Amino acid sequence: MRESNPRPSREPATWVRRGRPGPGPFAKEHGDAAREPESSGLALARHFVQDVPRVSRARVKLEAYPWQRLDSGGAPNPHAFVRAGQYTRTATVTYADGRPLLVSGVRDLTVLKTTDSGFFGFYQDKYTTLQPTNDRVMATSVTAQWWHTDDDLD
Questions:
Q1: Which CATH number fits domain 23-147: 3.40.50.1950, 3.20.20.70, 3.10.270.10, 1.20.58.2190?
Q2: CA 60 to the chain's CA centroid
C-alpha cells in the first residue's frame, strides 16, 4: 500500500495512511484470510468500517500477481521473487451497512489453443466474417469480472 499526499478535509479519505494495517501486521493477524485478494480485502474493509471512527463505508481494490521464488547458489532464495504469470487477479470489496459487495476478476489472461477449437453452429448474419469450422486456432486475451452472492469465500 502506498501513502498519498493528504487531501483537503472536504474530500473523502480514499488512501491508506502510515500506521494503518499493512501487509505485515495485517497478514499476521488474519492468517490464511490474507492470502487471497477477496478475503484480504473483505477483512481490511471491515476493519476500516468497524474500527475507524467516522468511517461508514470502505472500498478496497486489490491486484494480485503470481510470483516464483528465485534460486541463489542452487537453493531457493528466501527473499527474492520474479513475477511468474502474465495475468492479474483483481478484487474490489465494498463494505457498508454491515454488508459486503464483492467483485472478483482476472485481467490480461492470454489463452492460446492450437487445435480442437471449433466455431460451428453459431448464429450468422451479414457481419459474420469467419466460415464455420470444426477446427481453428483460438487466441485471445481475457478480462472478466464476477459478483459474489455472499461473503463466504472458501
A1: 3.10.270.10
A2: 10
Q: What is the pLDDT along the chain (154 residues), one digit of tens a residue?
A: 333 333 333 333 333 434 444 457 777 887 877 788 999 899 999 999 999 999 999 999 999 988 899 998 999 999 999 988 889 999 999 999 999 999 999 999 999 999 888 778 889 999 998 888 888 888 999 999 999 987 555 4
Bridge partner residues of 69 (DSSP): 81
Q: Which amino acid type is present at position 133?
A: T
Look at residues 67, 60, 61 and name the one whose alpha carbon lies nearest to residue 90: 61
Query: Residue 149 is which amino acid?
Result: T
Query: What ranges do the domains of the chain cover?
Result: 23-147
Task: Name the CA radius of gyration of the chain, rounded.
Answer: 21
The pTM for the full model equals: 0.69
